[in-house]
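Is this the right way to post structure tokens for a design question? Let me know if I should format differently. Anyway, here goes:
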């Protein structure tokens, strides 16, 4: 794997490890608080954190398996494995986090239990917010770096990035922070009104939030599993990378497909400078392909000659970067 891809993978691994540690501590604390207080919102948050902790294990497996190098059966490596395991994590978030929270909230709607030990609930929620915030800031820091390289805003980048592990941590931690606010609101309203309905509504709201995040992550991973194309901006950058080669007169066809996080397979039809004989053209195409494969994100580049009269693709104005898809 190229050095840059190794660095990004290492950064994603650390991000997932930080998230795992934070979620494990938070899950234990929330479970204790839920038992002591009987709060439906805290029970939902405990289920949420245990789901996130389990999901981080899936994401760690995804990171490990996707870094396996190519072999005879998988000539482009195992990069797409990361999307499979990330999909499992998203489904787990839905089934464990969302379904349990919603069902528990519905059963608690008719509860008339008084609010107990609210102070413990507030302390646990506050500590959880700090730990989840640390994990969230770690994922934002990594995303900010890769977003700057891709000349994108952080939120735009998190939706388009080919790295599903850091995206999952970002959304899970964001949902956790919002969920803690909902839990705090449920506990507070239960305490001041004496009605447990507010706590139950908090649990249902947390479940609904998790369901939305899970469906979003499932859809994003599905796109990459079935062959997600890079964004128009990334396609333009790759086109410019090819067109800027001294031996290339024009590019008439370009296909890019992700084979893993920050790794792409590239097929292009080019018109070479000059009118060389066939045997020389074959050598020049092979040399050009090897030159393109020096880019840290290109696993393989397959180049062929453009058909006679084929219209060249246009490099859009302002495309000055040759940063490939991340």
């Amino acid at each position: 794997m190229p050095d840059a891809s190794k660095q990004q993978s290492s950064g994603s691994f650390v991000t997932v490890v930080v998230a795992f540690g934070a979620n494990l501590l938070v899950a234990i604390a929330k479970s204790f608080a839920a038992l002591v207080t009987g709060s439906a919102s805290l029970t939902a948050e405990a289920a949420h954190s245990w789901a996130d902790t389990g999901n981080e294990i899936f994401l760690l497996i995804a990171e490990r398996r996707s870094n396996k190098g190519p072999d005879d059966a998988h000539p482009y490596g195992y990069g797409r494995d990361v999307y499979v395991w990330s999909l499992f994590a998203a489904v787990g978030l839905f089934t464990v986090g969302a379904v349990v929270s919603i069902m528990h909230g519905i059963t608690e709607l008719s509860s008339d239990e008084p609010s107990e030990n609210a102070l413990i609930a507030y302390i646990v929620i506050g500590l959880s917010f700090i730990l989840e915030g640390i994990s969230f800031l770690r994922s934002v820091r990594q995303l900010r770096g890769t977003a700057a390289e891709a000349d994108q805003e952080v939120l735009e980048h998190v939706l388009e990035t080919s790295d599903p592990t850091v995206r999952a941590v970002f959304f899970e931690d964001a949902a956790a922070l919002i969920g803690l606010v909902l839990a705090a609101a449920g506990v507070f309203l239960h305490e001041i009104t004496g009605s447990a309905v507010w706590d139950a509504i908090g649990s249902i709201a947390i479940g609904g939030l998790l369901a939305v995040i899970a469906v979003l992550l499932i859809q994003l991973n599905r796109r990459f599993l079935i062959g997600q194309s890079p964004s128009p901006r990334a396609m333009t950058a790759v086109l410019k990378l090819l067109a800027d080669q001294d031996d290339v007169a024009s590019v008439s066809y370009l296909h890019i497909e992700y084979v893993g996080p920050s790794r792409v397979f590239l097929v292009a039809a080019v018109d070479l400078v000059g009118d060389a004989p066939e045997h020389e053209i074959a050598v020049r195409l092979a040399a050009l392909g090897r030159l393109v494969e020096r880019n840290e994100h290109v696993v393989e580049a397959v180049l062929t000659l453009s058909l006679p009269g084929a219209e060249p693709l246009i490099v859009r104005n302002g495309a000055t970067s040759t940063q490939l898809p991340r």
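Format looks fine. Someone answered above. Worth noting: The beta strands are 248-260, 263-272, 298-305. The chain has two domains: 3-225, 232-305.
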